[in-house]
Amino acid sequence: MLERLIPEEWWGKLRQRGGPVGWLGLAALATVAIGIGYCEYGAAETVVRAAVMGCTDGTTVAADRAARVFQRVIAVYGEPTREEDRGNTLYFEAPKSADAAVSPFWLRLSDDADPCHWSLSVQVRVAPPGPDDATLVQAIDRDPAVRRGFESRGRWYANDEGLFLARTHPVRELQGASLYWLEDHLDLASHWATTWLGEVREIQAGRAQAPGETRYRPGKDPKSILDSANRFLAEAGVPKP
């Protein structure tokens, strides 16, 4: 799993760089991965990025990064149903996928005046509009029992088009045309749509109890992440701290 999160070129830069910075990056990555475990698409990436990257993107570089991702998304999920905001927003009503059903989603580019602050956000419609949308958002965001009971990442909101789960990713952190961050978010939203949203409704109605332990997608629990981190580090030859 971590092989997908940490691009090979980053890992190579750390090993080639050597010296205090390179070895500090390797040691920090090992400490985060083994000591914390739950480093998927977060702590591990941040440690490596901090050691090898700084944002010097100009508008042309940032636009090229975003364009490569837009092109890859269209190649994977088909032509968008429509484009909005000068082509900065793509809407996929019925995205194709070889792996699983994918809910309708928007992919938006926010092109700030500073290219280092550009971001891509994916907004997935988890459910059509419903009378309890506002209550569900409040429960997921603010009810400790519900919030701790189910894996969640991103921002929930509701409007007249439905219930959404959104996630933002900085353009400066894009690596080539990799869509891991987007694919992971689509998968999480799909799991909510098919499984957990119904359970939360039952909890809100008093017909079910909130889980005593956090429920995760298969392979996304902390133990699985830790095992994957250990395998990755062992294969890379990084000693345990």
Give descriptors for this structure.
single chain, 241 residues, alpha+beta, Yope Regulator, Chain: A, six-stranded antiparallel sheet, 9 helices, 6 strands
Structure description:
Helices cover 49% and strands 15% of the residues. With 241 residues, the chain is an alpha+beta fold. Helix 2 crosses helix 4 and helix 3 runs antiparallel to helix 9. It contains nine helices and six strands; from the N terminus they run αααααββββααββαα. It has a six-stranded antiparallel β-sheet with strand order 1-2-3-4-6-5.
Main beta-sheet strand count, sense and barrel state = 6 strands, antiparallel
SS summary, helix count: 9
SSE pattern, N- to C-terminal:
HHHHHEEEEHHEEHH
Mean pLDDT: 80
Shape: globular
Strand share of the residues?
5-15%
Distance between the termini: 21 Å
**Could you list the spans in which at least 5 consecutive residues all have pLDDT below 50?**
1-8, 30-53
CATH architecture: 2-Layer Sandwich
> Can you list the strand order of the major beta sheet?
1-2-3-4-6-5
In the CATH hierarchy, the third-tier topology is known as: Yope Regulator, Chain: A
Number of domains: 1
Radius of gyration: 19 Å
Q: Helical residue percent?
A: 40-55%
